[in-house]
Amino acid sequence: MSNLFSKGILVVETASAHIEKNSVFENIKANIALGGQNSTNTSVIDNKIEFGRCEGIFLISGGQCYIHRNQISENNEGLVSITSIPDIRGNIITKNKSNGIMMLKDTRANVFGNTIKGNDGIGLYIRDKSHGEIKNNNVSFCLFQII
Question: pTM for the full model?
């Protein structure tokens, strides 16, 4: 899915989806966006998510969701999570124009075994009371590795 004027894949309030083995690129807004009230159990697995003008993956007000083994590269932001509960594992997040992973506004994430490399901003940016278990990530060659 490419060159759409909106988001590549959008999962809205009260919905969930299993998004697997897609190539999503060059969309104007987020390549993949999900969340909203009563949205939970969405999985984003083994996708190639590239060249978006905004976020590779954008989560907002989402319940438990799974972001596993994706290639997220050359977007403006790699992955942005706002007030969500994601499980982020085994992703390769590289060469985004700003940050690799940004957790905002009380995001409660598990972040395990990701490669976050060569992003122009911060590799792993945790702010606004966000927290979680963060283990075994390889964060390198970003302007700042972890804040």
Answer: 0.93
